[in-house]
Specification:
The structure holds two protein chains of two kinds.
Chain A: E1 2-10, H1 14-23, E2 27-34, E3 37-45, H2 49-58, E4 62-65, E5 72-77, H3 89-98, E6 102-107, H4 121-128, E7 132-136, H5 141-147, E8 159-162, E9 175-177, H6 190-216, H7 223-233, E10 246-249, E11 252-255, H8 259-267, H9 277-280, E12 281-285, E13 292-296, H10 299-302
Chain B: E1 2-3, E2 7-10, H1 14-30, E3 37-45, E4 50-57, E5 64-65, H2 66-69, E6 70-75, E7 78-83, H3 89-100, E8 105-109, E9 112-115, E10 125-127, H4 129-144, E11 151-156, E12 160-166, H5 172-182
Parallel strand pairs in B: 2-3
Antiparallel strand pairs in B: 1-2, 3-4, 4-12, 5-10, 6-7, 7-9, 8-9, 11-12
Helix pairs in contact in B: 1-4
The chains are: A alpha/beta, B alpha+beta.
Amino acid sequence: MLEPLMYTGGVYRNDELIELIEDLGGHVLQQNVMQLEVVLLILVPADDIQIVEHKAAELLGTITRAPLIGAEIAVVAPSLAYHHMPHPTCDIAEYLRRKGAKTNIIGLARGVGRRAAQLTKSERGLINEHDLALFVFGDFLSCITDVKYQLYEDLEVPTIITGGPQCDAVPYAYAYIGGIGRRAKGFHRESEFAILDGVVDSISRALDEKREDLEKDPLCVSPVRVMEEITQQIPEIEESLSPTPITMHLDGMRIKLPYDDFYERIRGVKFIEGPTLSDVAEIEPSYMRGYIILKIKTKSVAGFTL
Amino acid sequence: MATSEKVKVNSPDDHGARLIEELTYDILSDLDVARSVHDIEIYVDPDEPVFILYGKLTVSLPDIRISDVATMTHTEDGLRLDIKNERYTNNLLDRIIARYGKADVLQLDRYTILVATDEDIPDDIIFEPAKELKRKVIDSIRRIAPEGYRIIKHDITDDYILFIASEEPLKEEWVNHGRRLAKGVGA
């Protein structure tokens, strides 16, 4: 069992920590160096957390639990106008990032109002590529319960809704979190951070359920292993300017290389056991900038595990 | 209904009304118009759907003329303007550049402008605080109103603003509701 953690510390001797994690059988998912500071998103075997914490303390860094690591979350606002931005949409997305998630803010083309609110085909496809979608709605209960569900009822990913009014549940959604709504100011008070923690808890629960579902019919190869093979065999991935050239999903990943140019090479990535990547995963073009979406096959579909 | 000293919000959804009241406060203070609009009454019903806002505007500052900002002196080099209120220098420069062209206007330093002319400059209005206030008030109200309500009718005078918005074509009863608010009769 790998535990998702976030390390924040200095650049000096940070390679020692990375080596330790790799020696323990853990993985470094993301490394952000900002001048003299470094943030690592890591997966560490649960039994060895103390060893990593001890090393982090020696390097004067801190280790925090980041439950959303390894998930890409769509934060969807009805539009990108000042009615929704920067508060609360960006605040929520930023808070989720601090808990380890990779978030993408999506502003809908026709998400506002009641009569015209709808999702386009490409928006639906793009949101479905994520592990989970979080919709940021407004202040009126009747809008949220009676109308806005049309935006997310057809989605295949779990959906969490935020809004202003308090209510137990809304149709078709995994969870509803009230107390946010439309805001013209940021989240500053302790009580407001408690609401954001509630959002993180709901997302963690939804992702845990998704992980449990995956365990019933496990993936034929671990996404982390696929990521490492791609990084080693396709060096161009290092030249991608994106902060996360390979973005992990629970059941696959988004590879930020052009689909048309790299499709054949991605298919041909070889595993030491014999199969190629096309045997263990479905490779599709992404709705996001023509990148590559990779969905790893389950054991029952592939017929073997690596 | 959510009521406070400055903002009164009516809506069939009480909780929504309270949230809109809070939002109104935040937006008005964010955009520096909190002291320029008062006695605001809002009626919002998402089921209709309609958003009506009525607010009284405070008396704004008088128009600013060139003579309020600078003194003119004729010199051998041309007309010299000595700026006494630097806040409106940009407006002043815009106006005289529009009139004489960029080649004939020279700003020597922060407080001195030289214009290549022998005539007096007419004492034009260079800044209208009332107009600026209305612009800012309309901007803030568009941020308060629900985003999908794009069919808008508004009425703005020196004393008040009435703003009616909806997603559907505006009904006569909504306009009348707004007019009743404007007359101070209430809904």
